[in-house]
Design goal:
By secondary structure, the protein is an all-beta fold. 2% of the residues lie in helices and 44% in strands. It is built from 1 helix and 14 strands. It has one helix at residues 64-67; strands at 29-33, 36-41, 46-51, 57-61, 71-75, 78-83, 86-91, 96-102, 110-116, 119-124, 129-133, 144-145, 158-163, 167-171. β13 and β14 (167-171) form a beta hairpin.
Length: 174
């Protein structure tokens, strides 16, 4: 069928070799912001930035707060990370970090983070809930359940999630 439509499948090739930018890189997450790619390496606690061609790049953040981070999401030049103490905001240009949300006792196991229109969403697989933190001028609101009472959602086998005008869930089995 592919041949009938003149579609040819080629083996994938390495487009960007991160080892040329930083040795011993352990890429965990990839974020795209305009013409730039950002790679989160939670094992080594660093963020790399490169152009989409991979010709130039550098470590843009190597802060202690990144060493313990389990999840990250990029929004408007800032990287938001989750660790055992809560959510930190890293300004990648200024290379500064601050705690914006402390660990909430209502949280179970947070499996994914997403940002949409400046709001932060945490996908909780234990509570089968998505916690929404609305953006304010300089901080976030307190957590609000995004899934209404009476609605059911199963996040037990969640691999990742995202939000735009809809909720997108990726389960461990696809």
């Amino acid at each position: 069928l592919l041949k009938a439509f003149n579609i040819f499948v080629e083996p994938p090739k390495t487009v960007i070799n991160l080892e040329k930018i930083q040795t011993c890189i352990r890429a965990e997450q990839l974020f795209i912001a305009g013409p730039e790619l950002f790679v989160f390496d939670k094992i080594n606690g660093q963020v790399l930035q490169t152009d989409k061609v991979g010709q130039k790049g550098s470590v843009v953040a190597s802060l202690p707060v990144l060493k313990n981070a389990t999840l990250a999401v990029l929004f408007s030049g800032r990287l938001f990370t989750l660790d055992e103490s809560g959510i930190s905001r890293l300004d990648l240009q200024k290379k500064t970090a601050d705690r914006v949300i402390g660990r909430d006792q209502a949280w179970g196991q947070i499996k994914a983070m997403a940002m949409y229109e400046g709001n932060l969403y945490l996908f909780d697989s234990t509570k089968n809930q998505i916690w929404k933190y609305a953006a304010a001028a300089t901080r976030f609101s307190s957590a609000k359940p995004y899934i209404a009472k009476g609605e059911e959602i199963n996040l037990g086998d969640l691999a990742d999630g995202s939000i735009d005008s809809a909720i997108w869930l990726l389960s461990l089995d696809g």
